[in-house]
Amino acid sequence: MSDRVERILADLRRQGERITPARRTVVEELVGADGHLTADELVERVHETVPGAHLATIYRTMDVLERLGVVEHTHLGHGRAVYHLADDVHAHLVCESCGAVVQVSPKLLAGVERRAREEHGFVLRAHHFALVGRCRRCKSA
Prior knowledge:
Structural class: alpha+beta
CATH superfamily of the largest domain: Winged helix-like DNA-binding domain superfamily/Winged helix DNA-binding domain
CATH topology of the largest domain: Arc Repressor Mutant, subunit A
CATH architecture of the largest domain: Orthogonal Bundle
Mean pLDDT: 88
Number of domains: 2
Helix content: 40-55%
Distance between the termini: 45 Å
Order of helices and strands: HHEHHEEEEHEH
Shape: globular
């Protein structure tokens, strides 16, 4: 078991949350994911390990993890929301033509976040939504 999984589970326990097989599997899948997962993808993966896990249990687990700041959801263009661990902060560029998703450093939007704070007193969470445009390949096509 990875140290990251165990740290997250320990944090959940400290906050009074129970660790069920389904919850453990949700955390393991999120940690092991190569990129983002939709809720449907997460349900499918959890059912491979814990076939009896109820859909509602998995969704409630995601709600708890989000409420506790363990995961965040992000809207990537017009598609479904995707989930990733909150400590993996990054911004997203989504090609409106081919759907490619590029993860970029949050530093890319640091100037915009700073100006929103300084000029408007607004704390921007720029990583919550994707910036939509055209990727290099589609732009030149």
